[in-house]
Amino acid sequence: MSFPVASGRTQYSGNFIPEIWSGKLQAKYYKTTVFSEIANNDWEGEIKGQGDKVHIRTIPTITINTYNKGDNLTNQVPDSSPVELLIDKGKYFAVVLDDVDAVQTDVKLMDMFTNDATEQMKIAIDGDVLSGVKAAAATANKGATAGAISGNINLGTDASPRAITKSNVLDLILDAGQVLDEQNVPETGRYLVIPAWMASMIKGSELRQAYLTGDNQSVLRNGKIGMIDRFTVYISNNLPKTGDGDSYLLAGTKDAISFASQMTNVETIRAQSTFGNIVRGLNVYGYNVIKPEALVNMVAVKG
To answer: What residues form DSSP beta bridges with 277?
Structure first.
């Protein structure tokens, strides 16, 4: 907007007074990604450049029988079902920069485009992984009757999500820990992925007392949630939602989800229909829940 002038005076704005385009770009905020923190890539090295599938062999369960003197022994032939990791997904970007724009601009446009594309690629894959694995948790690790032993732990359902307030948010976290305990999942390496609204409730709950989280300062003082009941807590705005807008939450260990990126390729080519360069990138990847008992799926709503 030009500066106002009195009637009859000449307005120089737009003629002798130029508009200035700042060479400093405005900061851009990106969603935080968590898939690299909650998934393993143990088999990635086995699939690079070698087809689109890897068969993961599982350890069979040996049956223990009761022995009485003189019994005829029953011999077991151990058997296991392999888990497949398919490399069947792909994400790409392709941007064109005209030669004229590349010469006349005062900022490095292509660097800006590719840097943004890198962040957007991570966000897209992160959202795909979080949405794709939620339904694959073991039957005893989700729903209103969770618990491989107890069978009475309410983790919420799409139709009846668990209402969470700052007075009961800790109860849900403890319940997720119990579900993993009943599946004999190791305590080390456990994670919990929650939405931002739940993180705010935690900061307003009893956990604001520093001694409950094991930190020297409370979560209100340092802004970090840290570790709760053996879970490293991550905040994500990429968590999927139900049709009613309720939040899915995930907990588990890295043993549950395996991720592999088979190919990441970025290349620059000359455009065919104009004078300019095209930069395009492709990421081919796959993931699977290979240990469902190590993954917990919860459905929660802000109470």
So the answer is: 97, 270
